[in-house]
Amino acid sequence: MTKKYKILSNYIKDMSSETPDIETYIFVKDYISKYQLNIDINSKAVKNKMIEVNTILKFEDKQNNKKKSYFEMNYSTIVEIDDEIKEKNDLERIILCDVQIDIYPELEKSFLNLLHNSGYPGVKFEKKIDFEQLYNQRLN
Could you report the average pLDDT of every consecutive run of 10 residues in the chain (140 residues)? Predict the structure, then answer.
């Protein structure tokens, strides 16, 4: 199957790492394995069959701990869609699934670099995000 889109460019649009003080850092260093990774994807048409796709990763503590760090990255991808794509469902699949699968290795590497450079070198994501499964769940 040939791709119905072309990735023209991608870049880190915004990134944030917030650890307010040393006490929080020490607490989070021991507790970070409990943090959860969340993903949000949105898009907007740019021009001439080009779409800006923003993939936002958040790694955060969902518990009611007073001491917590916050990590977020918005990874923007500029995609050109083939003229033959007319159906909304086809476009959604490209944005929510296909493009995400293509960019994920670089996205994960950039986000892990943020975490590691923020003082948490041991953080790894054990499970890869299954964009195919997420897309299919959304349809059901």
Answer: 89 97 96 93 93 97 92 98 90 94 95 97 87 82
pTM of this prediction?
Answer: 0.90
What's the CATH architecture for 5-139?
Roll (3.10)
Beta strand ranges found along 36-105 (DSSP E): 36-45, 50-60, 70-81
- Beta-carbon contacts of residue 14 (< 8 Å; ≥ 6 apart): 72, 73, 74
- What is the per-residue DSSP string for 3-31? -SEEEEEEEEEEEEEE--SHHHHHHHHHH
Instruction: For the sheet with 50-60, list strands across it.
Output: 5-18, 70-81, 50-60, 36-45
Nearest to 83 by CA among 50, 114, 128: 50
Q: Where are the domains of the chain?
A: 5-139
